[in-house]
Specification:
2 copies of one chain form a homodimer. Chain A has helices at residues 6-13, 17-25, 32-45, 51-58, 74-89, 103-115, 131-135, 158-171, 189-204, 220-233, 245-258, 271-276, 287-303; strands at 63-68, 93-98, 120-123, 140-143, 153-156, 177-181, 210-213, 239-242, 263-268, 281-284, 312-315, 318-320. Chain A is of the alpha/beta class. The first copy, chain A, has 3 domains: 6-49, lambda repressor-like DNA-binding domains (434 Repressor (Amino-terminal Domain)), CATH 1.10.260.40; 60-155 and 287-313, Rossmann fold; 158-284, 3-Layer(aba) Sandwich (Rossmann fold). A 6-stranded parallel beta sheet of chain A has the order 2-1-3-4-5-11, sandwiched between helices. A 6-stranded mixed beta sheet of chain A has the order 7-6-8-9-10-12, sandwiched between helices. In chain A, helix 7 (131-135) links the parallel strand 3 (120-123) and strand 4 (140-143). In chain A, helix 5 crosses helix 13. The interface between A and B is large, with 58 and 59 residues. Strand 2 (93-98) of chain A pairs antiparallel with strand 2 of chain B. Chain A binds a DNA duplex through residues 3, 5-7, 15-19, 21-22, 24-25, 27-31, 34, 49-50, 52-59.
Chain lengths: 324, 324
DNA sequence: GTGAATATGGCAACCGCTTGTCATACGGGA
DNA sequence: TCCCGTATGACAAGCGGTTGCCATATTCAC
């Protein structure tokens, strides 16, 4: 059973190649009857036009590359899921790439999507920006990450969110509040802002900021040990603001196992997280809105109607209190 | 800045089109020096061969379609993540599709990936099998789902896992154990086996099985109400086996809020879940192994070296006890 | 000196579809 | 009757790269 092609449809419908193509692309004159004949033939033969061939001609693939660390993380899972859905509803197809925050992987993926002629890229990977981004001459949108001065950024109000989180902990009368952050040699803007918000708020209330570096990427077991050791060594701690929800979850689990009852606030607020880890508060990013905005910007850029480069789009966050 | 193409490289390197193509495809005779010249030219020009054009000629795209309900669910997130990684390491690219268990969406996605000439499909969506699967004449592998008699299935030992879960609850001296299952008009095999394992085990120990239908797909808030109502109405319940971890998480949250302390066992065991919801036990499916096996089968089928159709590959599960 | 192996170029056909141009044919309105 | 709008077909070129075939040239070994 070979692949059905245009010619087969034409034969079946008793019309010419040109006519079938006209039906497919809605061009020129076609009578109702012919259109029906052709459509019927396509149906009967189970014909799908070869998008690869069409792309080749049109120089447009309707592919978009999605470069994110790892959809296993509910935050990325949710954002990728939203991106894929909105893109699909607008006729675009998503090539997914899990970079695991690995620079080599990211740059390989980047080459791959470029070689596959994607019309645009949405990136949420957290590496040092690859030089390929510069030379790649196509629309890119970054989610909560700096790529280059030409790439628009969509992110949540990291600073404001951190303030909100810290103030909540203070309100809850926590005396010793620590901030767990993702570590990285090079200062990633996101972490800075979340940390900055925490530090500023602590100082504002006359408290001493304390920061604990715990990477986002390390092995989970290792992380858990690190956190557990830290908590054991600092029994006075009664509040924590974690820069991400997975980290918050780890802290929560450690506390539970040690019988510590403290207030924890995470960051991200993927629905899966708030559903599964109700003992932790979190700062919810408007994930759907971010995904939609990123899609809008990207597609506008692809269409050539987006001009406002060098722009950051900062969306408001919301405090979600623990549910038990 | 136009797209660089083969001819540009040839010109830059001072060789013919044929020679560049030979370097690219490692065919025929090429001297070290020429190869270097060509490679240098490609580097300088930042050239990537147009995979779309190559695909068109070769009638092979190295695309694989991944049809899953929703990567927001940690189980699907983890399996999609694994699939993408193993596929990428073997030169394949993943087209992701979130079907949301919606039949129309699934069949549209199916048409889409077929139109894009994917070399194969891995599907974990949970719908009534679409007729398109039959007519699609290409390798398909199903994860924990029946598609057609010709499509090999990779799944975990649902029956054994359910027995394990139920026995654990009995061991924990739960008196009234209920099973929460995903509802669906048509009986999906997976649910059947998990339910069957539960029922058989209950009967084996002289207990009365009780089943509560709670869909996998409903709105989470709605689910939560349904579960809460049920728990209120049946205060004698002190143990629950949920057919999926997200459901288990919902039950856990309800219990917490109502101050009920009962044993809950879920099913799936994505690392994110066990990390975030340590108060719940679960039956862990060997997600990585399943993903790798599915990839192996699919790629063998694509290569034409896989013959064992009509086969089910059932992998063993493991009980993960709650960590606090 | 001859034949093989190595190295490169030129050319045409092809992958499946799109598009522009030209030709043909029918029917209706001015 | 003539022209125009409608409807369809035939054909060729092109999208970017691959491949097979033939030609040519150099080098090396026997």
């Amino acid at each position: 059973m070979e692949k059905v092609k245009l010619g087969d449809v034409a034969k079946k419908a008793g019309v010419s190649l040109t006519t079938v193509s006209r039906v497919l692309n809605n061009r020129g004159y076609i009578s109702k009857e012919t259109r029906k004949k052709v459509n019927d033939a396509m149906e009967e033969l189970n014909y799908f036009p070869n998008e690869i061939a069409r792309s080749l001609f049109g120089n447009k693939t309707n592919f978009v590359g999605l470069l994110f660390p790892n959809v296993t993380n509910p935050f990325y899972g949710e954002i990728v899921s939203e991106l894929e859905s909105t893109l699909a509803s607008r006729g675009y197809k998503s090539l997914i790439c899990n970079t695991y925050n690995n620079e080599e992987k990211e740059s390989n993926y980047l080459k791959m999507v470029l070689a596959n002629q994607v019309d645009g890229i949405i990136v949420g990977s957290r590496n040092r920006p690859s030089s390929i981004y510069q030379s790649a001459n196509l629309p890119i949108v970054a989610i909560d990450r700096f790529v280059s001065s030409k790439v628009p950024i969509v992110r949540s109000d990291n600073y404001g969110g951190a303030c909100l989180a810290t103030e909540y902990l203070i309100e809850k009368e926590c005396k010793n509040i620590v901030h767990f952050t993702g570590s990285s040699e090079e200062e990633i803007k996101k972490c800075d802002l979340r940390m900055q918000g925490y530090i500023d708020t602590m100082l504002k209330y006359g408290k001493t900021p304390r920061v604990m570096k715990a990477s986002f990427d390390e092995d989970e077991v290792y992380q858990r040990c690190k956190v557990a050791d830290y908590l054991s060594a600092s029994p006075e701690i009664d509040g924590a603001f974690a820069a991400g929800d997975t980290l918050a979850g780890i802290i929560y689990a450690c506390c539970k196992q040690k019988g510590i009852d403290m207030e924890i606030v995470g960051y991200d607020g993927a629905s899966m997280f708030t559903g599964l880890c109700g003992g932790v508060s979190t700062i919810r990013q408007p994930i759907k809105k971010m995904a939609r905005l990123a899609t809008d910007i990207l597609l506008d850029a692809i269409a050539g109607t987006y001009q406002e480069y060098d722009s950051e789009h900062v969306l408001p966050v919301e405090l979600i209190k623990r549910s038990y």
